[in-house]
Specification:
The protein is mostly helical. The protein has one domain. The protein is built from ten helices and no strands. The radius of gyration is 19 Å and the shape is globular. The relative contact order is 0.14.
Length: about 260
């Protein structure tokens, strides 16, 4: 069998294992939906619901960006660190399965779960809160590019980051805390232009800020582009930075990935 065919088999296996862990499934799928619901209620008084922008629409791009981070970076970093610690990776390395099939299985898991998560979030935003969704192909094309590059970079960086964990017990601490900090400084939970300038500059180094900005360019009215740091959506720059991070993640994976845990 080819590596691609084996990769699809690995994807199906990864999905079965993933959906058996109901705690992780509920957390990853419900997290952005619950936070969208909370923010839509808590901050409803700050928006004129009869106008173009509502609280739910304002926070939707940030919740999509957070979902991308959870489904790709955090899921990969935790799962690969666990598989390395319990010896799963070592056993897989001793089988005839090509290494590429393993990574294709991980990529397939992230892509499918991310699409399901996004679909659920979009249904809730539209049906429950009446969020106006884009109707033109250009915006959805922009969404697809940001989404794919965000998923690619998050997956590669998550697998690479997993090597920092010395065991499955320490993985949670070194993965969840940085991910949480990035969400707070990247315009996920707060308006990005309300953050201190030094914090904005720091967040601009990392891909989550650009994923959130790219999603705002899709779901926000064009007139709100002036509230960004550069006064524009910077779609080209967003794609270049996300693509660069994806390449960096791949390079780090290729040079640092370990099949066995550190002794």
């Amino acid at each position: 069998m080819s590596a691609v065919a084996l990769g699809w088999d690995r994807t199906r296996l990864e999905l079965k294992q993933y959906f058996r862990e109901w705690e992780a499934v509920v957390f990853n799928f419900a997290f952005p939906i619950v936070f969208l619901a909370l923010f839509a209620v808590i901050f409803s008084g700050n928006f004129d619901d009869a106008g173009e922008m509502t609280a739910a629409r304002f926070f939707l791009p940030g919740m999509i960006a957070a979902g991308v981070l959870l489904s790709s970076f955090q899921t990969m970093a935790l799962s690969v660190a666990t598989e390395r610690d319990d010896g799963t990776l070592k056993r897989l390395r001793g089988t005839p399965m090509p290494p590429l099939a393993y990574f294709l299985g991980k990529i397939g898991l992230v892509v499918i779960t991310s699409l399901i998560q996004f679909g659920l979030l979009l249904v809730v935003a539209r049906v429950v809160y009446g969020v106006e969704l884009p109707t033109d192909a250009e915006r959805w094309g922009r969404f697809a590019m940001v989404f794919v590059l965000g998923i690619a970079g998050g997956t590669a960086l998550g697998i690479a980051y997993s090597s920092l964990a010395s065991s499955a017990r320490t993985a949670g601490a070194i993965v969840i805390m940085p991910a949480l900090i990035l969400q707070f400084i990247s315009g996920v939970y707060f308006p990005f232009n309300d953050l201190p300038e030094w914090m904005q500059q720091a967040a601009s180094i990392f891909p989550l800020k650009w994923i959130a900005q790219g999603m705002r360019s899709v779901f926000f009215p064009d007139g709100m582009a002036g509230q960004e740091m550069a006064g524009a959506w910077e779609t080209g720059r967003t794609l270049i930075i996300l693509g660069t991070w994806a390449m960096v993640g791949l390079i780090i994976c290729a040079t640092t990935f370990r099949w066995t845990r550190r002794q």
